[in-house]
């Protein structure tokens, strides 16, 4: 009788490959007691021949056999069935065998002699992973440009659909790392201007003195170093879409020039005297509260109204936790392609742990974590224990770390507000519980109380700088000074860690 999956579908048998009759016999009997179908082979050659007509749900293979090794078999099987979980058994428990197994894409490495109960548990885990991956493969066969089943993301998709025949100005709001540029790309791709260029510029990442030239271009000799005429982003985006990211950080005087372009469709290059037409659709984005920036006098109210024709709010990842599994699997596949390695799979408990995390760096942080796991996770299946340290903290510590680290994951320039990300404790009882679970929180509570009671100014800034400096210093120490690796471990961007090191004076 064939085994049946939970969804009612028939499962393929488990294939056992070993020249040792006793090993085959023990595993066959143990798996039969579990109600699992088994097919046994004595060598790799017979397995490859059988693959012409059938396929297993899981393959369990010895590493040393007549007629071909398990590592060679693993490579050939993975060419035909890249998603098949393969468990490698060996009596030779050496480092080379383990490394070769994992490099070849093995699901797990099982040294002999093994406990039968544990071996069956491992096979059962591989079986569950195989069934889950079959479902995931179907859903990812036509991978969309954006992922999201959460109601908030479905609202965004519907809005993109409604705007597909329009070239109206759109303002995208959302926290840093939430995917605002992806939405801008989608708006362009599904618009009447899809055949035109899509040009993006992060107004917060370009120095104030250069931003005007970047946007509008300059004439030769307009300023020192302007040795040739240069087309700006507005000209480059002619007939298409210009995406102005982090518009809330644009210098006030440049806001006036941008308003003029949006109002009458004309602009001048720096040092130029002839007006140029701007046949451009503008999509802007910000993580800041523009209404508050207007009240503070840091953002022009008339420009705000000109940009705020249609507003799309992109939810933070913690507001759509149900999307984390699909995103994680997608990013693991993407990282594997970029690194030219076998894509790793992630267990259900590890996914649950990911879904509990608040992700202050949003989708960008999840992508960084998946890239880190692709490199650092020891096995082909990622378990909870393999996750980065910040995901293994207690829930209370995770909340406190996320609250304190908000400034560190923002892509805003030095000195600018980091948006509406301050968080308040759920109550004294919760704070006490968190402090008890993590002694460093108790130290933080004592220090903040001391400073606040003493009337020390800017307590938030002082403590945040200390927190950020310690985090970055520790990450750099662990990564031996490699900034990109340190940023990946922290779940922040490369530009962020470079800017923070300069701001905090850590490279002195």
Brief sketch in words of this structure:
This protein is α/β, with parallel strands linked by helices and 508 residues long. It has helices spanning 21-33, 44-50, 70-80, 95-103, 116-140, 151-162, 180-189, 208-216, 233-236, 252-264, 290-295, 301-307, 324-339, 348-356, 362-376, 395-409, 428-437, 439-453, 459-478, 483-490, 494-503; strands at 14-17, 38-41, 58-62, 86-90, 108-111, 170-173, 198-202, 241-245, 266-267, 276-277, 281-286, 310-313, 345-346, 381-382.
Strand order of the largest sheet: 2-1-3-4-5
Uncertain runs are 4-9, 135-144, 394-437
Specify the CATH class of the largest domain. Alpha Beta
Report Rg.
28 Å
Helix content: 40-55%
Cα-to-Cα separation, first versus last residue: 71 Å
CATH fold description of the largest domain: Rossmann fold
> Oligomeric form of this entry?
single chain
Number of domains: 3
Main structural class:
alpha/beta
Beta-strand residue percentage = 5-15%
For the biggest sheet, the summary is: 5 strands, parallel
Shape: elongated
Report the CATH superfamily of the largest domain: P-loop containing nucleotide triphosphate hydrolases
Number of strands: 14
In round numbers, the mean pLDDT is: 79
- Named at the architecture level, the CATH assignment of the largest domain is 3-Layer(aba) Sandwich
Helical region count? 21
